[in-house]
Amino acid sequence: MKAYVNETLCVGCGTCEALCPDVFKLEGAVAKVIRQTCTDCCQSAKESCPVEAIWLEE
Ligand code: SF4
C-alpha cells in the first residue's frame, strides 16, 4: 500500500503524524508523506483523519 495526502483538504491537525510518524510528517500546516510505502499504522491514520484527506492505494 502507498499513502497519499490531499493537501487541499488537510487541516494540519497532526493526527496522522502522531499515529504514524514513519509515514506522515507535518510541514507547516499540511501533512506530507515522507515514506510512501505504508506500515500498519497507515490504516489507523486514514481512519482518524477528521477531513478524510488520506487515501491508500496498492
Ligand atoms: S490527520 Fe488528516 S487533517 Fe490531520 S494532519 Fe493528517 S492529513 Fe492533515
In short:
This protein has a single domain, classed as 2-Layer Sandwich (Alpha-Beta Plaits). Helix content is 22%, strand content 28%.
Give me the CATH fold name. Answer: Alpha-Beta Plaits
SSE succession: EHEEHE
Rg (C-alpha, Å): 10 Å
Query: How many individual β-strands?
Result: 4
Structural class, from helix and strand content?
A: alpha+beta
The CATH class name reads: Alpha Beta
Quick check: average pLDDT? Answer: 96
For the record, the CATH architecture stands as: 2-Layer Sandwich
Q: Identify the overall geometry.
A: globular
Strand arrangement, major sheet: 1-4
Unreliable spans are: none
Tally of domains: 1
Strand content: 25-35%
Helical residue percent? 10-25%
Query: Could you say which small molecules are bound to this protein?
Result: iron/sulfur cluster
Give the biggest beta sheet: 2 strands, antiparallel
- How large is the count of helical segments? 2
The end-to-end span amounts to: 4 Å
Topology:
Elements: E1 2-5, H1 15-19, E2 24-27, E3 30-33, H2 41-48, E4 54-57
Antiparallel strand pairs: 1-4, 2-3
Bound molecules: iron/sulfur cluster (SF4).
Iron/sulfur cluster binds at residues 5, 10-16, 24, 31, 49-51, 53-54.
Q: What does this 3D model show about the protein?
A:
With 58 residues, the protein is of the alpha+beta class. The protein has a single domain, classed as Alpha-Beta Plaits. The protein is built from two helices and four strands. The protein has helices at residues 15-19, 41-48, and strands at 2-5, 24-27, 30-33, 54-57. The strands form two sheets. A two-stranded antiparallel sheet has the order 1-4. It has a two-stranded antiparallel sheet with strand order 2-3. A hairpin with a 2-residue loop joins strand 2 and strand 3 (30-33). The longest helix has 8 residues, at 41-48. The radius of gyration is 10 Å and the shape is globular. The mean pLDDT is 96. It binds iron/sulfur cluster (SF4). Iron/sulfur cluster is lined by residues 5, 10-16, 24, 31, 49-51, 53-54. Residues 5, 10-16, 24, 31, 49-51, 53-54 line the site of iron/sulfur cluster.
